[in-house]
Amino acid sequence: MVDVDPAQNPSSDEPASDASEEPSKKKKKKGNFWKELPVLILVAFGLAIGIQVFLGRVYMIPSESMEATLHGCTDCYGDRVLVDKVTYRFTEPSPGDVIVFRGPPSWQNDFISDEPANPISQGLSWLGSLIGLPSANEEDFVKRVIAVGGQTVKCCDEQNRVTVDGKPLDEPYKHFDEGTPAEQESFEELKIPDGMLFVLGDNRNHSCDSRCQGQGGINGLVPVDNVIGKARVIVLPPSRWGGVTDHNPQVVSMGAPGWQQNVPLGLGIVAAWPLLLLGRRVRDRFRR
């Protein structure tokens, strides 16, 4: 009877053979990753475009007209704000909302420049728009809604306050540059037509808004249809992370406790987790 060496038995399961297969498996996984990378990049860009078109977009604040709520002063790092595009699909802008909108024909934008002719520059400009950099021909504005259709707005009363339907506004966000008088420029009484908005900048005497665009009056109003979305959160720089106030100036508020004021931001953070988990599952499925 001849003893058979287990090392020479082809039918036996040997750790040595498993070890020899491990390098090939690793090489196979590594090769699959590079094949999947272009697909992952396309998926990422597709999601980014879809989110910006239907849900929200990051905008850069280029001017100081909304100081100190939103920073966009000269020679400083302008705030990047996340603009919610969903809310106004179901409701209309309300007094106190900070909105981003397309400038009507009567409005003039001081930040418009020539569109780049170089295809590479155009591509870089498009990529920059994904992270909130304004394009060369950007004609979008950010202001605060003061009055809506059917209301009558005027400035000012005896205490230099804007009035709507004869009642003074409560405007804690109002800002005056250092060294300038804390007084607002007056304007004539104006009845707002339905479907139009009267908007002002928080930096009250350093903002060209419904008072001066188109020489004021009806020409300075903004159609509701031009509204892109509502500014919700400051996302950059990190030192200014937080929500954008939408205090209704037509309602005298006694203020809310701090925990209530932070509820919307907290809910937004909690709601982001399912999206992150879903993204991980999609990524793991591509890898497999």
TrEMBL record:
Organism: Lentzea alba
Membrane topology qualifier: Single-pass type II membrane protein
NCBIfam families: sigpep_I_bact
This protein's UniProt keywords: Hydrolase, Membrane, Protease, Transmembrane, Transmembrane helix
Protein family according to the UniProt entry: Belongs to the peptidase S26 family.
Protein's GO biological process: signal peptide processing
Protein name per its UniProtKB record: Signal peptidase I
Main location: membrane
Keyword Transmembrane helix in record: yes
Peptidase S26 domain segment(s): 35-235
SUPFAM superfamilies per UniProt: LexA/Signal peptidase (SSF51306)
Disordered: annotated span: 1-27
Domain of life of the organism encoding this protein: Bacteria
GO CC terms of this entry: plasma membrane
A Pfam family hit: Peptidase_S26
Catalytic activity: Cleavage of hydrophobic, N-terminal signal or leader sequences from secreted and periplasmic proteins
EC number: 3.4.21.89
InterPro entries referenced in this protein's UniProt entry, alphabetically: LexA/Signal_pep-like_sf, Pept_S26A_signal_pept_1, Pept_S26A_signal_pept_1_CS, Peptidase_S26
